[in-house]
Design brief:
By secondary structure, the chain is of the alpha+beta class. It has helices at residues 2-6, 24-32; strands at residues 40-42, 45-47. The two termini are 23 Å apart. This is Reverse transcriptase.
Length: 48
Amino acid sequence: MPKRLNKYGLNINKAKSQMIKSGRDHAANLAKQGKKIISYNFLVFTCY
């Protein structure tokens, strides 16, 4: 991702950014372990 943004003169502040795993497959893997997927807010949407 940083390389793609650098192409346009943009960059990511690593102190303010993080990768969050989400999706049906990730949720299924966590369910097998007895855990729940975290929720997060992106713009005005809550993602589960």
